[in-house]
Amino acid sequence: MVKDLEARALAGDPEAQALLHFLRLLRSRDYGGARDYAEGFSGDLKERLLSGLAQLEEAPEGLKDPLFAAEREVLLGVRAVREGRREEAEARFRRALELDPGHHRALTNLGNLHQERGELEAALELYQQALRLAPEEPLVHENLAALYKRKGDLDRMVAHLKRANRLKLRPPPPLDPATGRPQRRLRVPLWVWVFLLAAFLYFFVLQRP
Fold first, then answer.
1. Average pLDDT over all residues of the chain
2. Start-to-end CA span in the chain (Å)
3. Which of 78-84's residues contact partners 24+ apart within 8 Å by CB, and which partners?
4. CB 78 within 8 A of CB 113
5. How far apart are CA 183 and CA 152, in angstroms?
6. Angle between the 104-116 and 69-82 helix axes, to the nearest 10 degrees?
7. DSSP 112-166
8. How many C-beta atoms lie closer than 10 Å to residue 120's C-beta?
């Protein structure tokens, strides 16, 4: 489902691009933002998205729509953790990743289970995968901070805590419509700044009568 959407989005399909944005909101559990975004669709698709969101919040176990399948597994996995059924939880998080390899909350929750068992390197690998997918997600940095605290790496622990706090205080970055992921901010190379400064000095300083 997700791979098909990504292929269609890269081919320029505007509906697929919009649905990827919607999925990104689900991955971050921004259901309010997802609901607002769904209002921009029309017809049957709008009703499908709004109905799926309502079921996620009320009774995810009955939700069969494949668009919501990965998020459903994550929610049921979190519920299983709370009720002490950790083997079921792990199976659900792994199933979520099979359905949507970009679901960073599934990765972090799976990492949390490994961390609970003292499997710190396995947890670290999962958190780092989540970080590559969602570098602007505060929760990923908080999980890394907790892990580095257990490993005794206080410098990295503090760095990730500071990063998490900064991300919580700033507005989210714009999204790439083709992928639904945060856009990279444009970085101007140093040589461009040097060239512009030299041009300014030449035309506005050296050329003055």
1. 86
2. 67
3. 78/109, 81/109, 81/112, 81/113
4. no
5. 34
6. 20
7. HHHHHTT-HHHHHHHHHHHHHH-TT-HHHHHHHHHHHHHHT-HHHHHHHHHHHHH
8. 15
Cβ-based burial of 110 (10 A; exposed 0-12, middle 13-18, buried ≥19): buried
**107 neighbors 97 (Cβ within 8 angstroms):** yes
Residue 142 token pair? 């908080």
How many residues in total does the chain contain? 209
pLDDT in tens, 9-26: 888 889 889 999 999 999
With 0.90 as the threshold, say if the pTM is over it.
Answer: no
In 3D space, the residue among 113, 112, 100 whose CA is nearest the CA of residue 180 turns out to be 100
Q: What is the Rg, in whole angstroms, of the alpha carbon atoms belonging to the chain?
A: 21
